Amino acid sequence: MVARPLFGKLMDHPRVNRITMLQLTLLFISISTTLVTIATNYEWLATFQSVCGFLEGIYAISVPLIAQDLVGDSKLAPALATDLRVMPWRSFVPEGSR
Q1: Overall domain count for the chain
Q2: CB–CB of 56/33 below 8 Å?
Q3: Cα separation of the two ends of the chain
Q4: Which helix or strand (DSSP H or E) is residue 92 part of?
Q5: What is the number of other CB atoms lying within 10 angstroms of the CB of residue 57?
Q6: Cα 56 to Cα 2: distance, rounded to the nearest angstrom
Q7: How far apart are CA 79 and CA 4, in angstroms?
Q8: Are 60 and 4 a contacting pair, CB within 8 Å?
Q9: With contact defined as beta carbons under 8 Å apart, do 20 and 71 qualify?
Q10: How many other CB atoms are there within 10 angstroms of residue 58's CB atom?
Q11: How far apart are CA 2 and CA 18, in angstroms?
């Protein structure tokens, strides 16, 4: 709830590189997911969930903005629809064939 409006405004700023912001967000998500293995009590798990939820909000606002930059306004709807159709199928591809 907090991340989307805050980072939506930030990503509209002309001096912010949206792709770099998305890459940093994915990096921090992966770091926090790696660190969850050392969570030994409820407080650490709640902290992990809060951080991941915040970063997921940034990721959710980044994908349409970057798609808009890549394909333009006229082809944004088909691009997002294709992305959402292809995303679930990525998990069925065996690791060795990627």
Answers
A1: 1
A2: no
A3: 34
A4: none
A5: 19
A6: 11
A7: 21
A8: yes
A9: no
A10: 22
A11: 18
Predicted TM-score (pTM) of the model is 0.71
| Distance of alpha carbon 56 from alpha carbon 77, whole angstroms | 21
31-57 pLDDT per residue, tens: 988 888 888 899 989 988 888 888 888
Q: Which two tokens stand for residue 51?
A: 């951080």
Interior angle at CA 11, CA 29 and CA 23, nearest 5: 30
Domain residue limits at 17:
3-97
Q: Report the range of poorest mean pLDDT among 15-24, 28-37, 64-73, 89-98.
A: 89-98
Number of H helices, E strands in the chain: 4, 0
